[in-house]
Design a protein that fits this description.
Chain lengths: 263, 224
């Protein structure tokens, strides 16, 4: 390896390590690389009676969450998505609030780390500009079933405990603490929460103070769910989180990555 | 009430949406209070593709900034910004829904009878089954009058509108959806002024609509 390149790589790795205090797989020089996810099935956390698994078609997924640096470039190309310019109907007041200026992500936080404080609308706009889209819940969760060796590790010893522990100690500032799974996708666990295209499919819990009747008035077919894999508590946390946000919500632990269908 | 050019378009467009009987059409010609100018203009029907007259710039809080095409029961392309100029009560439903959706429509019909200047909007969450033909027959079967707009879209446009309205929905079978029964009140500019989250809880919605009517009337009084 040429010395200059080695130094550069070492610097990048150091930044990534600093960001995540992690395993040493630094984020490479191809930030928005996508990997191909083969078709398979995913059993949703909540299913309908009679519904078992849903088929996930093959698709492409970003290997990493979109970085601060990448989103800064997007904002540069799309001034209407600058902080202060983005319409309040699409972003809440916290949009990109951790940036030192509307056009710069700054470098107080590693630029390779995941962009956060972005709304569902902003995330969608970014992915659309890249010719992609947000992954669906089924796609995202399907990829999250994998560990370093297996496409579905949920039956493997310790995997569910490991992912829960990672979820309870998220390293929002970096992605490197999280492992690279068998698909080649990083940071599905232990990083930031991520937007999915159909987060609206989650219904927030009922308000017990007003009872069941009001629940029926709130939601058509409100009781028509049954629990899937109750052992996957990390998945429950993600599910609950999706139920708690609105499309214009921005938080410091919520980022995204993009997907693309395969024709 | 202050009318903007958009009112005219909304009123006239709705006629083609529901294919009203002669009876319904004559009642549509009775203009709501202060709408004389709009009714006079109303002879000019808007056709899809025809450029819209300029409207005031949309407020940054307007959901009409979602500029994606929709279709109506006639199969014509429609844009939410056409609803600008008059307050609207909006709900997302699917026309083959047997349980809550008829109740949402019932709530909206109560508002229709109580608030003369109000537009009513139903948007389908089921692009695969709610074709223009289905929307038209639904509008006819449920006897939706000329102040109603019934729209269908794509999976993407439905997701975006649901997102701004805070409506949650999920397909639970080939024929049915789970969805929240939210009725949203929009002011004339398309900004959300109230969200009714449960069926039958109309009092908050009524209060919001009275407030919208007052704030619209106020500038006009000052101008006179």
């Amino acid at each position: 390896m040429r010395p200059v390149r080695a130094v550069l790589l070492a610097a990048l790795a150091a930044l990534a390590l600093d960001a995540g205090a992690g395993s040493g797989q630094g984020r490479g020089a191809v930030p928005s690389a996508t990997v191909r996810i083969e078709a398979g099935t995913y059993r949703p956390l909540y299913t309908q009676p009679g519904e078992d698994a849903v088929r996930v078609d093959a698709f492409l997924l970003h290997a990493w969450p979109v970085s601060r640096s990448e989103f800064e470039a997007f904002v540069g190309r799309n001034p209407k998505w600058r902080r202060g310019a983005a319409a309040p109907v699409f972003v809440d007041g916290g949009y990109l609030r951790d940036w030192p200026s509307p056009v710069s992500a700054g470098d107080a936080v590693p630029r390779q780390g995941p962009v956060t404080n972005v709304s569902w609308f902003a995330a969608r706009a970014y992915c659309a500009e890249q010719g992609g889209r947000l992954p669906t819940t089924a796609e995202w969760e399907y990829v999250a079933l994998a560990d370093e060796q297996r496409r579905n590790a949920t039956e493997a010893d310790g995997f569910l405990r490991r992912t829960l522990e990672m979820a309870m100690q998220p390293r929002a500032r970096g992605t490197d603490a999280a492992f690279r799974n068998v698909w080649g996708v990083h940071a599905m666990h232990g990083g930031v929460m991520e937007w999915v295209s159909d987060f609206q499919g989650v219904f927030a819990g009922s308000d017990s103070r007003v009872g069941e009747r009001r629940e029926q008035q709130l939601t058509c077919a409100g009781g028509a769910t049954a629990t899937g894999d109750a052992r996957d508590y990390a998945a429950f946390l993600r599910y609950a989180y999706r139920g708690s946000v609105q499309a214009r919500t921005t938080t410091g632990v919520l980022g995204f990555r993009c997907a693309r269908g395969i024709q | 009430m202050r009318w903007r050019p958009g009112v005219t378009l909304t009123v006239s467009l709705l006629v083609s949406c529901t294919a009203p009987t002669p009876d319904e059409r004559s009642s549509a010609e009775v203009p709501p209070e202060g709408a004389a100018a709009a009714a006079a203009d109303g002879a000019h029907l808007h056709h899809a593709g025809e450029p819209l007259p300029p409207l005031a710039p949309l407020p940054l809080t307007s959901i009409y900034q979602l500029d994606v095409p929709w279709y109506d029961g006639a199969g014509s392309e429609r844009h939410l910004a056409e609803l600008q100029g008059t307050p609207q009560a909006v709900a997302m439903v699917y026309t083959t829904c047997g349980s809550a959706c008829p109740l949402i429509v019932a709530d909206l019909k109560r508002l229709e009878s109580e608030f003369e200047g109000l537009g009513l909007v139903l948007v389908s969450i089921d692009p695969s089954r709610d074709t223009p033909e289905q929307l038209a027959s639904f509008a006819a079967a449920t006897r939706l009058g000329p102040r109603w707009t019934v729209l269908g879209g794509t999976d993407d446009s439905v997701a975006e509108l649901a997102a701004v309205l805070g409506v949650r929905y999920r397909r639970i079978s080939d024929t049915d959806f789970m969805h929240s029964n939210i009725i949203t009140v929009l002011d004339a500019g398309g900004s959300i002024v109230h969200r009714q989250e449960a069926l039958g809880e109309l009092d908050g919605t009524r209060a919001a609509l009275r407030q919208v009517a007052e704030s619209q009337a106020a500038p006009q009084r000052r101008n006179r």
